[in-house]
């Protein structure tokens, strides 16, 4: 599918004229990097991103972690999808958070990198018990950029961790309902002291429904083309 930016009246965000490939349920779309105003700008015009703390900015990406991250303007919903383009630092021993929602001591819906170079996606129930988890094989994410999708379908009782460039497509079943608290989805920063690693991110998006793999592929191809052209980032 060819990526397209339109300036027409029939697209999401009338002033900017943004049109991404998967608009149904889209609640936030960010190109991250360069400066705080660009990073916070929601190109879908559905919401407004908020910089959390003081991340550092580079051309085409930002470095998130304990110093700061990006709050996406969507409260966690029972079924939803998160997408980020990311690259790790020299070590993942401090378990950087990639994307998710969590407050201190209240786990909920979180993707983080373990100290074994694996991505872990976890969700919890109302009793704060782990009910769904997927763990990727180990891979080196410190040299190359990657695009990941983490989705939860609370009707079907399934979570998915999808990393196209690594051919990782993992699902796990759970018995719902899962825990929902009034917390916005955050890219790159967590409220718990155990997750303090740094991570580079170039893009983040959220939807209020579980995307199909086909829709994830469409979004991946769109972002891949744009980041390659605009920031020389290959996800």
Mean pLDDT: 80
What's the number of helices?
Answer: 2
Describe the largest sheet: 8 strands, antiparallel
Distance between the termini: 16 Å
Number of domains: 1
CATH architecture: Sandwich
- Structural class of the helix and strand makeup? mainly beta
Shape: globular
Can you identify the CATH class?
A: Mainly Beta
Strand content of the residues, in percent? 35-45%
> What fold name stands as the CATH topology?
Jelly Rolls
Q: List segments where confidence is low: pLDDT < 50 over at least 5 consecutive residues.
A: 1-16
Record field, number of beta strands: 15
Architecture overview:
- This protein is mainly β and 235 residues long.
- It has a single domain (26-231), classed as Jelly Rolls (Sandwich).
- Helix content is 10%, strand content 40%.
- It has two helices and 15 strands.
- The chain has helices spanning 36-40, 213-231, and strands at residues 26-31, 50-53, 56-58, 61-64, 68-75, 80-88, 97-103, 106-113, 119-124, 130-135, 146-153, 158-163, 168-173, 184-187, 199-207.
- Strands 1, 3, 4, 6, 11, 12, 13 and 15 form an eight-stranded antiparallel beta sheet that branches.
- A hairpin with a 4-residue loop joins strand 12 and strand 13 (168-173).
- It is globular and about 40 Å long.
- The protein starts with 25 loop residues before the first strand and ends with a helix.
- 45% of the residues are buried.
- Residues 1-16 have low confidence and may be disordered.
């Amino acid at each position: 599918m060819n990526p397209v930016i339109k300036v027409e009246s029939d697209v999401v965000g009338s002033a900017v004229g943004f049109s991404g490939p998967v608009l149904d349920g889209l609640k936030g779309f960010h190109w991250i990097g360069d400066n705080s105003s660009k990073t916070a700008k929601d190109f879908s015009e559905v919401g407004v991103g908020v910089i959390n703390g003081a991340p550092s900015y580079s051309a085409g990406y930002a470095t998130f972690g304990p110093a700061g991250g990006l709050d996406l303007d969507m409260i966690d919903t029972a079924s939803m999808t998160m997408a980020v383009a990311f690259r790790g630092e020299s070590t993942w021993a401090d378990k950087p958070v990639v994307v998710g929602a969590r407050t201190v001591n209240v786990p909920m819906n979180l993707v983080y990198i373990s100290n074994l170079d694996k991505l872990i996606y976890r969700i919890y129930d109302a009793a704060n018990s782990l009910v769904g988890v997927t763990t990727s094989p180990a891979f080196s994410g410190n040299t190359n950029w990657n695009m990941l999708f983490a989705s939860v379908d609370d009707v079907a009782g399934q979570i998915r961790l999808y990393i196209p460039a690594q051919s990782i497509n993992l699902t796990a079943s759970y018995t719902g309902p899962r825990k929902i608290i009034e917390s916005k989805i955050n890219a790159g920063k967590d409220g718990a002291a155990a997750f303090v690693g740094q991570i580079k991110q170039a893009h983040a998006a959220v939807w209020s429904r579980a995307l199909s793999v086909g829709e994830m592929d469409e979004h991946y191809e769109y972002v891949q083309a744009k980041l390659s052209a605009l920031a020389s980032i290959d996800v």
